[in-house]
Amino acid sequence: MKHLRKYSLLTALIGLLINSAIAQNPLITNQFTADPSARVFGDKVYIYPSHDIKATPGHGRAGWFNMADYHVFSSSNLTDWTDHGVIVSQNKVAWVDSNAYAMWAPDCIERNGKYYFYFPAPFKAGLGRGNAVGVAIADKPYGPFVPEPMPIKGVLGIDPNVFMDKDGQAYLYWAQGNIFGAKLKDNMLELASDVKVIWATREEEFFCGWGWTEIAGNSPSGKSASSGASALRRSEISQASLDPVLLDPNCNFF
Fold first, then answer.
1. Would you say residue 42 has pLDDT above 60?
2. DSSP-derived 3-state class of residue 232
3. Hey, which bits of the chain come out as E strands?
4. Other residues' Cβ atoms within 10 Å of the Cβ of residue 232
5. Single pTM value for the model
6. Are 207 and 226 in contact (CB under 8 A)?
7. Cα dihedral 167/41/243/199 (nearest 10)
């Protein structure tokens, strides 16, 4: 029953998002948001989006994305949404360049009663180059979140996504030109395997779709999941409605 309620909420949320897109009736109207990650924790749906603000002199780049922090929103009925405020900010993470305004698509997952919020951001000068993926931890899905002092070692890129397999193994995915993936240790803060390139742009590669919380194909271990795998060649995809993941025709990549 618990899982049925979870998937019912997710199905309803997906339908609501589709209808909102068609009707141009956004869930969040008091600020600019994008890149939402939707999760069901308990009896509520939580949305973790990026937050775009208007550039002003000395604060961001005009005509570009200006993202300095993250909010989280929750709802128990998918109609009324609560803004829980800022949960992570670029000027309160030790390793992040506080003038970059580049906190892009995040994700959040629960493990053993803790909530792990994954976010990309550029390094502060002298600590590294390019973008890395950090983690902030909380006891509640809405925070307060406490960022780790350094990002995940070995992860350079943006748009992190976390998947928890049925056997309890967590996987982290991120993008930097290609799409990469690796297992996470039980502490959710370190990689437990070598990094693999799991997607690259070649015409005849295959793609699988993601659900909101589970891959809609085979599991990361290569074992068959209960839902049927659906692989498409790049040329067969008519619109960008699914996030691409590494593939052969059987949706195996690990």
1. yes
2. strand
3. 32-41, 44-52, 69-75, 82-89, 107-111, 114-122, 131-138, 146-147, 158-164, 170-176, 178-184, 196-199, 206-208, 231-233
4. 17
5. 0.73
6. no
7. -40
Q: Are 161 and 107 in contact (CB under 8 A)?
A: yes
Give backbone dihedrals phi and psi of 134, rounded to 5 degrees, phi first: -105, 170
Report how far residue 102's alpha carbon sits from residue 234's, in angstroms, rounded to the nearest whole number: 29
Domains belonging to the chain, first-starting first, are 2-199 (2.115.10.20), 201-254 (no CATH)
For residue 223, the 8-state DSSP code is P
**Could you please report the per-residue DSSP string of 2-43?**
HHHHHHHHHHHHHHHHHHHHHHT--S--SSEEEEEEEEEETT
pLDDT tens-place string over residues 94-141 = 999 999 999 999 999 999 999 999 999 999 999 999 999 999 999 999
